[in-house]
Automatic annotation (TrEMBL):
Name of the protein this chain belongs to: Sirohydrochlorin chelatase
Species of the source: Streptomyces sp. SID14436
Amino acid sequence: THPALARLLLHRYDEALASPAVRPPTALAPA
């Protein structure tokens, strides 16, 4: 996998977690 792509995905995931209005799909959430 591309390091930059992984960083981007993690950044977007962190933004989603930080936002109370936006929740990540349960399929992507590692419980």
